[in-house]
Predict the structure.
Amino acid sequence: MRYDHFLRHLQTEDAPFEMGRKDQRPRLADAEAHQRAYEANPVFYALHALAPRVREGQKLRLLYTLLRAPRQGSRIVDRCLQHLLEALPVESVLTVFLALRRTRSRRKHACRTILRYLLNHQELERLLEVRRPTVVDCLEHALGRDRFRAQRRRLAQTGTAPLLGGDRLLGLLARLRPIPHQPRAAQDPASVTVTESNRGGLSANLVRIYRGAQGLRSRVEAEAAQLAGRLPRYPGRVTLILDASGSTAGYGDREYCCIAQSVALVRVLAHCLPNLHLVTVGATTPRGEFLPKPQGHTDLALALVQALEGEPELVIIVSDGYENVEQGDLARVVATLPQLALATPVVFCHSKFGPADDLQDRRPAPELPEVEFWHQNDFDEVVYRLLAPLEPAREALRNNLQLRLQRKEALCLA
Amino acid sequence: MSRLIQLDLLDPTGLRLGQTQSSYGLQMIPIFGASHTGFASPANLKLEGVRGGYGNVGLRNPTAGDGVAIVPLHLGYIQRGAQNHALCRSAFIAPGETVTFNDACCVQAAQGGYLEGRDQWFFILPLALRRQALELRGQNGYSKLWESITAVNERYGLKQRGHLEHLLVEQRGRLDRFRNRFELMPEQRGALFFLDRELVGVELGPNPEYFRDVWTPLVAFCYGTAAWARQQTQPLPVTKPFTARTLGELKSELEEVRTLREQQLQRSLVQRDPLKLIEEERYQDCVLRTALGRKFCGQLVERDGKLVYASLFHRSAG
């Protein structure tokens, strides 16, 4: 699986980490894809625990794959494992541990991870009440059946020893850092009613500027720079086609919302991609004006051809998805690209009002890789998906993943 | 039609056409031209409500000064808890004047209650109902369009009742998308609408402000419904790649295909359909006429021989 496809898979594939009953092995249709990604670069693979918007089921697969594999001796992989154990719900982690048992996978580092996780977990007492058979199975797997049963016999005979009393391992485990309580998840922006003002501060300010507000320009620039500071930076040649046609103005309560969020993304990308060339469809930005005024028709097909003439490394199309010079032209142009021997990746970014927008009938080129955004919190996912097809951008992604890991750890310690 | 097209739309000193937009089998060519002043905006028309029984709709032009209102042809209103109505004809309403349309038709069969006077959004009848509505102008009887509405609803797979709100309200989200698919251009005064590249409608306002007010009702409710009907029966064509082998060839081929499409639309424009014009009403130097052709019909307003307003549509389209 190509890297950009794998990243998209992590962010969109929501299949749960399923275990059958009794002694069945986990049923994972994408196990091979994970294994190959791991073998290609174990450290880069592990860092995807920190990639934006990775689904929980996929994080569990990352954990499972890392625990099944031999220990890499990389500090980064260990930190990623620790992050996964802290970020995932305990019930799901137990499922992964059970999966290790059923696949008879007993790497030393995995066994230690299981023991450390369970014996130091702050909710161990509750787990022993509600998931006792599972916890016992996991401990038995980690310690080995004979050793575990010997411990239990000793416990039964003396009546005073702790569960693993007298074992040197206990001393080792006691020194390990406890698993902290998981912080309460922040309110999901998708759960509230979407308005023009709660789609991120950057977009909200841009809507105000479109409505005529003064004095917000510097604020917008500062916000865009701040957002971009947390994202990967890639200096390659990139062309962005911004759809600023009449339909992106919207109407009613949503007036200017679509174009504002598109412009917000462009402003952030301008920092992340210093060699970004902008092609505006529909509107023109008059001299001295700050923002494109949405108007005119949507000719994405010709814009794409013109963008490719500049031989960029990547073409990004940011649009509301309504193509109307002739619906279907963009799809025909995209279908023709393979026969031109052009390998330039083209990514379609859907600018939406809210998470529930129906994109049916708004996909002018379904063959193109797509990514959606409606809130500035989506920008990190967008940037990762944009850079994923570019081999030279891998280093930038890796560095940013490490930064995310450091930030998470700092947050955890704080 | 031939007269209209030859004398006005293709007249380089009068009206000119913009770039075609096309989506889901519906094409729209914007019309630009000099503005005519002295006309009130349709958005300012005030619904006075149903007065003196169903089928009697009062409209007032509250504009001060000399702005006469041209009531858009086949204007209609929807209100919750009241029987929705649509008009069968256009009319002039002088500044400050209130006109009661006694030949209006109810578009919601099993609903009691009179429309109340208020400022509110309006629709234009779906294309499939316009010929029938025009033929019924001047005839009293609020139930006269129910059978046609039932037939239209049946075609869309909706409940077979004389209730237009099943189409216009329940499918509003679907129809609103046509507002996004087609962009109103700056200074646009009118539009030609085509279904599968066959001319089905000519819409013209006296100035861009007027046309902006009728744009959404036209593109979503009138012609959008027709495009949706086509969309339901005809799947989108399969995407075929161009034959180009280089980027330069691709650009040329794209432009060539677009030129061919334009030529096809132009051929649809020059069809000859002599219109019989019947004078309906005069206001100062403005004349409202009903146009009846073999293929097209509708109403238009001229002032000093210049076309000011037109709403002409294909008799059997939609």
User: Anything to note?
Assistant: Chain A has 18 helices and seven strands. Confidence is low (pLDDT under 50) at residues 159-166, 171-179 of chain A. Chain A touches chain B at residues 245-247, 251, 282, 295-298, 301-302, 305-306, 308-309, 320, 322-329, 331-333, 335-336, 338-340, 342, 358, 361, 367 (CB under 8 Å). The first strand of chain A starts at residue 18 and ends at 19.
